[in-house]
Description:
Layout: E1 5-6, E2 11-14, H1 22-27, E3 32-35, H2 48-57, E4 61-64, H3 74-86, E5 91-94, H4 99-113, H5 117-126, H6 134-142
Parallel strand pairs: 2-5, 3-4, 3-5
Antiparallel strand pairs: 1-2
Helix pairs in contact: 3-4, 4-5, 4-6
Amino acid sequence: MQxxxxxxxxxxxxxxxxxxxxxxxxAQGFQTVINNRPDNEEPGQPAAADVKAEVERQGMHYLDQxxxxxxxxxxxxxxFHNAMTRASKPVLAHCRSGTRCYLLWGLSQVMxxxxxxxxxxxxxxRKGYDLRVLPAMAEKLQNEN
Length: 145
């Protein structure tokens, strides 16, 4: 697993997690795990069902919301926003590298909280994430019906 990288008090992002890493995440205080990675994205990646089983065995909450960056929709951003609103915190969201999760969070901040896309891009860059696509993507999604 790469990360976790703290986005704020409620959310951290990370690369793919394996079932064997879940107990350590629980020990770090995470209450909810959100998976933003589709199964079979690359060979050898743990199955979402296996990670979910271990998350639940550890007494944490699990949400599977697989997306690909090129196909993120307004509905995906809304679902992520709603999950973050309802989730027991802190939340760890993971995908291949953490970028997709950070992007979903950034889009939700722009769309629901009127956050500055450029400020989010700058903050993400300081944490090692390239979200330069965020401003154009947010504008496109906000114009979706």
